[in-house]
Design a protein that fits this description.
membrane, mainly alpha, 5 helices, DUF4345
């Protein structure tokens, strides 16, 4: 009968949490990539944008779909290639922190947000704290 040490079990748990963290980030970025590529106008309207030209549409798709594709690709590599894991976690933390700070700045300058903004901010805070913890453990 083989016994596993506490550090083996802890390492396995951290590895499992890391994979879930990266998989959830990948799901979000992949979802944004597909949704904003295929349905940019209705999604723009849902969050308060009005798109008046093909140039605006191209930029909207690029930022909400294309950029998410690039981030998602690195997160995917972090899931399947151990040498990309730390970079994928760091990118997830940095992007969540950047999104949170920009939303918070807007709330202070321009007033209250809506449910989407507050839900997004909550997930971003969790992502930052969990991601920083994972970076320290990995």
């Amino acid at each position: 009968m083989q016994t596993h040490s506490i550090s083996d079990q802890t390492g396995s748990l951290i590895s499992w949490i890391t994979k879930i963290f990266l998989a959830l980030n990948l799901a979000v970025y992949a979802g944004f990539t597909v949704a904003f590529l295929l349905f940019p106008v209705p999604l723009a309207n849902a969050i308060g944008y009005t798109i008046h030209s093909s140039g605006a549409l191209a930029d909207f798709r690029a930022m909400y779909s294309g950029l998410c594709f690039g981030v998602g690709l690195l997160v995917y590599y972090g899931l399947i290639k151990p040498e990309f894991k730390t970079q994928a976690i760091f990118l997830s933390v940095a992007s969540a922190a950047g999104l949170f700070v920009a939303r918070l700045y807007t709330l202070f300058l321009d007033g209250p947000g809506n449910e989407y903004i507050y839900l997004s901010m909550a997930t971003e805070i969790v992502s930052v704290f969990l991601g920083v913890w994972l970076l320290r453990k990995n």
